[in-house]
TrEMBL record:
This is Balbiani ring protein 3-like. Pfam families: WAP (PF00095). Keywords: Signal. Residues 1-23 form the signal peptide. It comes from Microcaecilia unicolor.
């Protein structure tokens, strides 16, 4: 009895001494933070077990004494325990009528390696970056190999994943994703979704990525071209189609250096914003009490040296002060004339003329509101009109023309000749090197009216209606 009482008294004295030492700060409490997950050692017999520390106090600064497979070492703490919370399907989760009180509010409150997920301590899920290699078609597995190397990515090195490969789960080098981002979802999906075309980026050809677009499919990655989009243009309600049309999804859908830019509720292709040298003409007094649609918001959207300036009721592409508006006519000589003298005669150009090339000479010529070149053939037949993205050639950059395109108008690359093909000649003609009795009607498509082309007909160059059905040239 005396022995039992003595042991009890000794335990009380030790407990009081420990509390006094802890209160005095001689023995600090456990340092805050959580130890990282121990690394995996393939063979523990080969592990050189030599403890670097015993308690957190043995480690400098904020480091903690952590187990690293078979030894204890000083490591910096992490805020949360390693691993991720498991994904919970909201359709399968059942909300109890009388929910239990929260079990935790932080990983600190959970024992061992469990994490605090939705106020409940649960085992973590380890998910390393990258994707598993595609499983080969061989060997044909008749039963699962019992020799499993891993159960989750947490059993593998940081650059490996636990993959179903070769009849068993094993740690394999993770495949990183291909460069680029998947295009955004801009439409609603119709269920059920189609069968997936791919599982990872490496199932796709070349630079294509495996993206979720109403089902997994191989698509071109989102391409971000250099530069910034111009500011959105103001569109007057009378010029709006009443629909939100998307003429592009990503920059890669736009030609040349153009970017896919937001224009109200629409997406359109525009050249990146840029300023041109020169100044805008003197601000004109508003002639209209109501603001009209903008033709541009940046100089880069205007042709040649034109700048985006305020004009009457909105922004428009205008020439700098002292510059004659309009474009030079095409450098096409009249029918029957092949050469011109190489002279310069631009000393007395009027306000409506520019010094323009014609053959080998430079001469004062009356300008045109249209750029040289022709619009491509637009075979689209529309059930409704889309919004016009341009109204004249001056609102198109470079050599582009304002043409009928996709149920509206848009700036497109010009053709050097009119679209279509000439009908096949019906007569066997002599070479056209002989001087004809009468001058030719045309020598270029520019000499023909409307959509007609300059073609061989009846052994002469004449303006005829072209063919657009290439499958039936006769």
């Amino acid at each position: 009895m005396k022995t039992t009482y003595g042991i009890f008294l000794l335990m009380v004295v030790i407990s009081l001494a420990t509390d006094l030492i802890s209160a005095s700060g001689i023995l600090p409490e456990r340092k805050p933070g959580i130890c990282p997950r121990p690394r995996k050692i393939a063979n523990r017999l080969l592990c050189p077990c030599k403890d670097e520390c015993t308690l957190d106090i043995d480690c400098p600064e904020n480091k903690k004494c952590c187990s690293d497979s078979c030894e204890k070492v000083c490591k910096p703490p992490i805020k949360d325990k390693p691993g991720q919370c498991p994904i919970i399907d909201p359709l399968q989760s059942i909300i109890p009528l009388f929910p239990a009180p929260p079990e935790c509010s932080s990983d600190y409150h959970c024992p061992a390696n469990k994490k605090c997920c939705l106020h409940e301590c649960v085992p973590p899920v380890y998910q390393h970056d990258g994707q598993c290699p595609q499983k080969p078609d061989y060997p044909k597995c008749t039963e699962v190999d019992p020799a499993v190397d891993c159960n989750s990515d947490g059993d593998c090195a940081e650059d490996e994943k636990c993959c179903d490969y070769g009849c068993r789960f094993q740690c394999m080098q993770a495949l990183k994703e291909k460069p680029g981002d998947c295009p955004p979802m801009i439409f609603l999906c119709i269920f059920p979704l189609p069968e997936p075309q791919c599982k990872c980026d490496f199932d796709c050809a070349k630079e294509e990525k495996c993206c979720s677009l109403c089902g997994l499919k191989c698509v071109r990655p989102r391409e971000e071209k250099p530069g910034k989009c111009p500011k959105p243009s103001y569109i007057h309600p009378s010029d709006s189609s009443g629909f939100c049309d998307h003429f592009c999804k990503v920059d890669g859908d736009c030609p040349s250096n153009k970017k896919c830019c937001d224009e109200g509720c629409e997406k359109v292709c525009k050249p990146p914003a840029a300023d041109k040298p020169g100044v805008c003409p003197t601000c004109l007094i508003k002639e209209f009490p109501e603001k009209c649609s903008d033709e541009c918001t940046s100089d880069s959207e205007c042709a040649g040296t034109l700048k985006c300036c305020f004009d009457k009721c909105g922004l428009a592409c205008l020439p700098c002060p002292g510059e004659t508006p309009g474009f030079c006519p095409p450098k096409v000589l009249p029918p029957g004339i092949d050469v011109t003298p190489c002279i310069v005669n631009c000393e007395h150009c009027t306000e409506e003329e520019k010094c323009c090339p014609m053959g080998c000479r430079l001469d004062c010529m009356k300008t045109s509101q249209e750029k040289p070149g022709f619009c491509p053939y637009d075979p689209v037949r529309c059930i409704r009109a889309a919004r016009s993205l341009c109204t004249r050639d001056s609102g198109c950059p470079g050599d582009e023309k304002c043409c009928s395109h996709m149920c509206g108008t848009d700036c497109v690359a010009a053709l050097s000749e009119k679209p279509g093909i000439c009908p096949a000649p019906t007569d066997t003609c002599l070479p056209l090197t002989l001087s004809p009795a009468t001058p030719p009607v045309c020598s270029s498509d520019y000499h023909c009216p409307d959509d007609q082309k300059c073609c061989i007909k009846d052994c002469e160059m004449k303006c005829v209606d072209p063919l657009h059905d290439l499958s039936n040239p006769s």
